[in-house]
Amino acid sequence: MKHRNKATLLFLVLAMNVHGQIHHMANVQKTDSISSFVKSYTDSLKSYRLELDSLHQIVEAYNGLTFQADGNYSRLFMPMTFYHDIVNDQFSLEDNPLAHSISNKALEKALLHIYLYRPDLVKKTQSQLDAQGNVSPGQATIIKNKTDIVEKIAPTPFEPVVNPLEVVVKKPNFWRFYGDGYLQFLQNYISNNWYKGGESNYMMLSNITLNANYNNKQKFRWENKLEMKLGFQTSERDTLHSLKTSTDEIRYTGSVGIQASRNWYYSLQLIANTQFLHGYRNNDDQVYSDFTSPLDVTLSFGMDYNVNWFKNKLTGKIHLAPFAYSCRYVGRSALVGQYGIETGKHFKDDYGSEFNINLNWILSDLIRWRTRLYGYTSYKRSLVEWENTFTFQLTKYLTTNLYIYPRFDDSMARNYLHGYFMYKEYLSFGLSYSF
Hints:
There is one protein chain. The protein is α+β, with helices and mostly antiparallel strands. Strands 3-4-5-6-7-10-11-12-13-14-15-16 form a twelve-stranded antiparallel β-barrel. The protein has five helices and 16 strands. The longest helix is centred in the first third of the chain and has 28 residues. Helix 1 runs antiparallel to helix 2 and helix 1 runs parallel beside helix 4. Strand 12 and strand 13 form a beta hairpin.
């Protein structure tokens, strides 16, 4: 009986604490936030749990009442519900030891104070729970495995049917073909009484440059370049020829190179040049040049340097050959003994050194400069040619060309006015096309 009184006293203290907390929550204004209320409620449950654990230990220590754990405590954690049995127990005259145990009394008082002071928290009633019915007890489901009897034989291997694939291997194309050409005209009119004299004339000039280069990207290349120029002009003072050639040239340049370093190649170069038609002078029927008369061929061995400067604006090649073989051939009998060839002979050759510089410089979007500087010396005779073509791009297909060509050749007869130097220059306008 003494132990029972102590347990009763502890539960009364617990009930008073719960009552005080609930009464404090009832006095809180409804304007409080949900989070503060939830925190207070969870703190109360935590405190109540600690007190129950302490009471459980005390009861077991004194071997007093049996502390039975049941589902009544879940009412504190479930949505707040109005239970009829709590009200009935409070007004019942019978003394039910199980229903009026200390733990149940404390639980009932806690819920009863919520009913009295915070009825707004009650969301359901016991009648609604009864209408839902009891929770159906779980039933064990028996799973029966059906065993199939199969023969223990090796599975038949599956070999997928593979359709043959047609593999096409394309050989890389190491060739590059490109070129350009233009057709231009010039007209000059001078009246008969022009105070400085002169004569009217017309001129037509055509030029085609073809390139076929092979480079296998494995230190071998073969470059081919064919240049063909042909121009005609009229002259009122020439009574023998209504039309004469002003420009007549065929030049082939070929080289085979093996790469020595990034920009240097060991190179074998061949240059051959002649003309298409007969060459005349004013009022003179004598032929001064013809096809293969003369024909100049130079074969040289040296080094090539690839030029790529100013962000691809200045490109080209420089050929330096300390060993060169040069020969000149004249096929027309009337020209035998000219062009530095001895009288009665059609052929002349010698050895020496050579250099050949070919550059293309894009000065601007509208101006391009193509230059060729060629030199050969046998240490007895020398030949230097410097061709310059300035192209002014007016539209996509219309251009103006300024051509300047100085030449030095001491194998020719010396001129009393210019010596061994010769000059050629023209300014033309016309069509151009690159491909």
